[in-house]
């Protein structure tokens, strides 16, 4: 889970400008074939002389915008698949779902899940408040919005360290646990502070779209067979590796180049699909954890000591999924919004 924190580090302004570049100029070239100019028009004359651009020139030359077009196609396909899965599991499938099992849950399981989602709402609220506050601090903005390696690794270290601290403290240590949790949310809010410079309508639409995606995916997870999406851990790990490597590569390449645009498309559109799938997985994992974690009533007469169920730790993975979905929606909508303003 801690390695997933690094997915919140990509430079928002860089990727947004890449999407905006696609929206302004590259879409026409991708859709209509474009003109023969630049690297693509270079033709060498003479016998035995290579014609056309080299592979390096193609990768580092200007993009046609096709990576972003393909990204929208992949996102549309994933959306259709998600709607189909919701309809199938909700109306057709006869396998026992989480929703059906909830009728026989003990009261403590319901309490655990409701408390976890209450902390999730609190985490999002703390992140939003701290993000707005951090956006008004020049020193914090220089650290989080800077383009250097120190900014990248500094924010990564702060997120991972605060997350490890919050998870390591026992839930029964009430004050220390909640202070560490608030610190972690504050750090993530500071990392997301550059998003506050987007237009207000963009953030509002992205928030509503995120709520719709999270609600739809949560409904899919609870209507599906209770452990259906827990079998996705292998593919999710591989997909995370691809997006993570693309994220690192995109940090060093301009989004206007063919290779940079391809990596940015993987990070933005591929990451949106990936973290939507992670949300399905983490939702069912939360329910399974709430069901299987021992309760004091099950140990009546025993001297065994167990740690109580920790709703703060339980919500952290879903919390990161929601933030990553929101961030990528802001990138996409911010780029397209810039094109409409022009």
UniProtKB/TrEMBL annotation:
Keywords: Membrane, Transmembrane, Transmembrane helix. Its main location: membrane. The chain crosses the membrane at residues 68-92, 113-134, 140-166, 178-200, 206-224, 236-253, 259-281. The keyword Metal-binding does not apply. GO terms for biological process: calcium export from the mitochondrion; inner mitochondrial membrane organization. CDD domains: GHITM (cd10431). It comes from the Eukaryota. Pfam families: Bax1-I. The keyword Nucleotidyltransferase does not apply. This is Growth hormone-inducible transmembrane protein. It comes from Caenorhabditis elegans.
